[in-house]
Each structure stands twice: as C-alpha cells, then as structure tokens.
Amino acid sequence: MNKLSTGMLIGGLVGVSSVALLNLDKNDLRRVQRKSKSIFNKAENLLMDIKNMI
Q1: Using CA atoms, how far apart are residues 5 and 24, in angstroms rounded to an integer?
Q2: Terminal Cα-to-Cα distance of the chain (whole angstroms)
Q3: 29 and 21 in contact (C-beta within 8 Å)?
Q4: In angstroms, rounded to a whole number, what is the distance separating the alpha carbons of residues 25 and 11?
Q5: pLDDT digits (tens, 9 = 90+) for 3-50
Q6: Residue-number span of the structural domain to which 40 is assigned
Q7: Where does residue 4 fall: left (phi above 0), alpha (psi -120 to 50 degrees), or beta otherwise?
Q8: Distance between CA atoms of 30 and 36, rounded to whole angstroms?
Q9: Disulfide: which of 8, 19, 24, 54 matches 28 by Cβ 3.0-4.6 Å?
Q10: How far, in Å, CA of 37 to CA of 23, rounded?
C-alpha cells in the first residue's frame, strides 16, 4: 500500500466515523464516551499494523 491509498483509507474511516457519531442520540453518545479507551487502543493497534505494512 502506498502513502496515497493509506491516507485515503484513513481519511475515509475518519469521515464515516464522524458521520456515525453525529447521528447518535445522547444515551448512545455517553456509552461511546465510556468505551472510548478501548476504541482508542484498537485504533492505535490498527495504525501500528498499517505502519508495519508500509
């Protein structure tokens, strides 16, 4: 994977996740905030895997 396609992939994921967060109601948003630590850990692992592939 070259840098352009990796950037497009990450940008697309960020765009989709931001639209999904905008469509949540308050209860779902609170649940996501409580689970954000595990989400960030998974995202960090994904980025490290992508970095190792490059």
Answers
A1: 29
A2: 7
A3: yes
A4: 24
A5: 888 888 888 888 887 777 777 787 877 887 778 778 788 888 888 888
A6: 3-53
A7: alpha
A8: 10
A9: 24
A10: 21
What's the number of domains the chain is made of? 1
The tokens describing 20, both together, are 């999904």
Neighbour-count burial of 35, counting CB atoms closer than 10 A to its CB (0-12 exposed, 13-18 middle, 19+ buried): exposed
d(CA 18, CA 20): 5
Q: For residue 35, give the amino acid letter.
A: K
Return the residue matching tokens 């996740």.
Answer: 17
